[in-house]
């Protein structure tokens, strides 16, 4: 029945030239393009979706979670630096994802992917759900009431919290200083419009 509802062109998704800005996340370090039930009708009812990451030199898909799906992440052309925290009390696992290899990030786990090279990198992230969701940790955390954030960070004042919040860049971000220095990339101010709207307190 679903096949009758869809036209032939709705079974194809172009990650290089996506049909709209829906599912596209861009920052100073690169961009990701997601094909989910939100923008790719063919996945509806099939329990799968996919994101392609295009990371510039030293670009990082900053720590995030997928609340509704497990991810298998395949590195296409460079060795990516990946990391995952599954839950409270679990050890941190850091994984070098070599070209042609993949790793798994369990549903709900905090994880990241960084391109530690001076070349462009690409990864393929597949999900066992048509709407995996994504929750960028830093960009969302500071959307909580500032007094709650301040107390959680050991008693920072509301103005200190606001000052920290202003530094959080849009995903995909520029990565660690060691990589930037090695690749002769200057860290410049990054756009920061993706932050969760601040709750007044």
Report on the architecture of this protein:
This protein is an alpha+beta fold and 201 residues long. It has helices at residues 2-5, 137-141, 146-152, 158-165, 177-182; strands spanning 24-27, 30-35, 49-55, 59-65, 71-75, 80-85, 93-97, 102-105, 110-114, 121-127, 135-136, 173-174. The strands form 2 sheets. A 6-stranded antiparallel β-sheet has the order 1-2-3-10-5-8, with no helix packed on it. Strands 4, 6, 7, 9, 11 and 12 form a 6-stranded antiparallel β-sheet that branches. A hairpin with a 7-residue loop joins strand 6 (80-85) and strand 7. Helix 3 (146-152) crosses helix 4.
Write the layout of secondary structure elements.
Elements: H1 2-5, E1 24-27, E2 30-35, E3 49-55, E4 59-65, E5 71-75, E6 80-85, E7 93-97, E8 102-105, E9 110-114, E10 121-127, E11 135-136, H2 137-141, H3 146-152, H4 158-165, E12 173-174, H5 177-182
Antiparallel strand pairs: 1-2, 2-3, 3-10, 4-9, 4-11, 4-12, 5-8, 5-10, 6-7, 6-9
Helix pairs in contact: 3-4
Protein name: RmlC-like cupin domain-containing protein
Percent helix, as a range, is 10-25%
The chain-level mean pLDDT equals: 94
What is the overall shape?
A: globular
Largest sheet, order of strands side by side? Answer: 1-2-3-10-5-8
Query: What are the low-pLDDT stretches, counting only 5+ consecutive residues below 50?
Result: none
Order of helices and strands: HEEEEEEEEEEEHHHEH
Cα(first) to Cα(last) distance is 50 Å
Q: What fraction of residues sit in β-strands?
A: 25-35%
Rg over alpha carbons: 18 Å
Helix/strand-derived category reads alpha+beta
């Amino acid at each position: 029945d679903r096949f009758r509802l869809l036209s032939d062109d709705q079974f194809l998704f172009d990650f290089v030239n996506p049909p709209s800005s829906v599912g596209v996340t861009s920052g100073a370090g690169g961009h990701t393009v997601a094909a989910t039930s939100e923008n790719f009708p063919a996945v509806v009812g099939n329990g799968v979706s996919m994101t392609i990451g295009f990371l510039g030199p030293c670009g990082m898909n900053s720590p995030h979670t997928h609340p509704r799906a497990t991810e298998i992440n395949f590195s296409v052309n460079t060795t990516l630096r990946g990391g995952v925290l599954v839950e409270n009390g679990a050890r941190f696992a850091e994984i070098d994802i070599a070209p042609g290899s993949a790793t798994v990030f369990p549903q709900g786990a905090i994880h990241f992917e960084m391109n530690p090279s001076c070349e462009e990198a690409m990864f393929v992230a597949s999900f066992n759900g048509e709407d995996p969701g994504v929750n960028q940790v830093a960009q969302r955390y500071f959307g909580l009431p500032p007094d709650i954030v301040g107390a959680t960070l050991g008693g920072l004042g509301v103005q200190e919290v606001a000052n920290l919040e202003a530094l959080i860049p849009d995903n995909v971000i520029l990565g660690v200083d060691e990589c930037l220095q090695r690749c002769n990339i200057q860290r410049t101010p990054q756009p920061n419009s993706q932050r969760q709207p601040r709750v007044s307190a």
